[in-house]
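Q: Protein A?
A:
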Amino acid sequence: MEGESELRRWDELIPDALGLIFRNLPLQEVLTVIPRVCKSWSKAVAGPYCWQEIDVEEWSNRCKPDHLDRMLQSLITRSSGSLRKLCVSGLRSNMMFTFIAENAGSLQTLRLTRSEISDSVAEQIAGRLSAITFLDLSYCCNIGATALEAIGKHCKLLVGLCRNMHPLDTADKLSQDDEATVIATTMPKLKRLEMAYNVISTKGVLNIISSCSKLEFLDLRGCWDVKIDDKFMEGNFPNLKVLGPHVLDYYEINDWDDFSDYSYASEDLAWEILAGEMGDYDDDEIYNDGMYDGRLDELELRFYDGIDEDAGIYGWPPSP
C-alpha cells in the first residue's frame, strides 16, 4: 500500500542485526534451531555477532567437564576476539582458564563460579584480564588472598566483585581477613562487593569500606563475626547498603544443603551434539539443494511442517 514502508526479508538482515535479535533467544535454540532456518542465519550464528556475550552457567552445572571445555572453545573461537561477557560454572581445566585469558581482550564481565581455578593460575592469567569490570569467583575454594591480590593489581577497572562462599566450604577456616586486606588495598574502585559466608572480622570489613570509598553495596550474609552498628554506618557511610550479617536466606531455610544440581543424567542431547559429538558439515552441501531459494515465508512453512520429525530428538513438544 502507498505510504507503507517496503517489506524487508528477514534473511537479508545484516549479520550484526541478526546477532542482536538472536541474543534474546535461549542459547540452545540459537545453536540448534536458528542454523537450520536459512543459510544467512546459519552464517550469522557461526560468526562473532551472536557471541559477544556467552552465558552457559546454568547448563555447565549439569554437563560433563570435557563437553563443557569443547563447548566453550567453540563459542569463544566464534567470538573472534569480540567477547564482552562470559558466564560459566564448574571449570576444572587450567588449559581453559588460559584459553579464556588469551581471548579476553574485550572481556568486561567474567563469572567463573564453582571453578577449580588456583592461586598460581590466577597469577598467570590476571595480566590478560585488564579490561574486566565485573568478576565473580563465588564458591571457588582453591583460591585465596594471593589470587585476589594478582587480580586487584592488574584489573584496575574492577567495580564489582563476587566472592560468596558456601557455609560448609568455610566451616574449617579460621580467618579470611587476608582476603579482606587485599581487597581493601588493591580494589579501591569497587562499587559492589559480595562476601557472603566469608570468615572475616569487623576490622576486616571496616578496612574495606574505609578504603573503597565508592562502595554502594556490600553483602555480608553469614559473616557472623562482623558486628557493625547501624547508626555508625548511617552516620559514616550513608550511601552504602549492607546486607547481613544476620539474614535468613536459602542456607538457613534448607539446613545448608547445596542448591546446585550436578547430575550428569540430565544433560541434554542437543548440547552433546554441539559440544562435538556430531561431525562437521559443509554449508554448501546443505544449502545447494535449493531448499532455501526464494522467500523466507515459504522457508518457514517448510521448516515448520517438518519439525515434528526431529522434535523427539531434542525433547521438544510436537508442532500443533
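Q: Protein B?
A:
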Amino acid sequence: MSVTAKVALAAIVEAALFIALLFGAAGTLEWGAGWAWMALMFGGGGVVTVLIARRDPALLAERMRSPMQPDQPLWDKVFLVAMGVLWCAWLILIGLDAVRFRWSVMPLWLASVGSALVAVSFWLVARVFLENTFLAPVVKIQTERGHRVISSGPYAVVRHPLYAAAGIMIPASALVLGSWWGLAVSALLLAGLVWRTVMEERELVAHLEGYAQYAQRVRYRLVPFVW
C-alpha cells in the first residue's frame, strides 16, 4: 500500500473512531462543539500532513509505520496501548459530560480560547515536524536513517517540543468540547506524556550520540524555565 493510501485510510479510520466515541457517548449528532473540534483536529492534521508530504516524504513514510516495531522498547509498546485506551475513554467521558448528562456548564468564551490554543498547538506541531526528520511515532534510534540530534528551531527552546504541543492541545480540546470533567481527566494524559518524556530521554542519552551534551545545553524538556 502506498504512503498516500495509508494516510487516507488512517484518517478515515481515526475520524470514524472519534465520531463513534464522542457522538455515541453524547447520544446525538447534533453537537456543534463536537463538529467544531473534529474540524480543528482533522483540518490542522491535514495541513501538517500535506506540509510533511511536500517537504519530507521520508518522515511521512516513517510516521505511517506500525506503532509496534521490533526495535521499540517494550515499555513504549505498553505505553502506546495504555494511552490509546485512556484517550478513547477520555472522549467517551467528554461526550457523556458535555452533552448526554450535561454535568458541565462551561462559558462559550472558553471554547474560543480552546480553539485558539488548538490552532497554536498545530502551528507548533508543524514547526516541529519540519525541523526534525527523525520524529518517529515510536521510541527508537533510527540508525538506518542516520539518526542525529536535532537542536535547531523549537528544539533550541525545549528538548521535546512535540510533547509540549500535545500538552497544549489536550486540555484545549476539553475547552472546545465544553467539558470540565474532560479538562480534569486530561491531567492523566499529560502525566503520560511526562512519563514518556523521562523514559525516552533515558533511551536517547544511552544510545544517541551527542544527546547528553544537547541535554546540558537545552535545559528544559517541555516548558521553558519550568521543566
